[in-house]
Amino acid sequence: MLAANELERFAEVCTAIGNEVADNDGFVSVRNLLARFHTSLLIRPLLVEGMLASVKHKTGNNFDVSQWTVLLDSETYPINELHVKEESQDQPLPSRLRNTIAHELVHSLAFRPSEFGIRLRKYQNSEKSQRALVQAIEWETERLSPLLLWPEKTLAKLLSGKKQSLSVEDLRWVCRSMGISRYVLVNRLRLLRPTDANGFRYRDGLKDLAIGIGMWIDGGNAVLRNWPIFVNFDRNIVPAFLHKLLHQDRTPAKIVFAGVNFAMCGGSQNTIEFLTDAGSSAVPNAEKMNVQCSIEHMNKKTGSEFLYVIRKQAVT
Question: Would you list the DSSP string of 87-132?
Answer without folding.
Answer: --SSSPPPHHHHHHHHHHHHHHTTT-GGGGT--------SHHHHHH
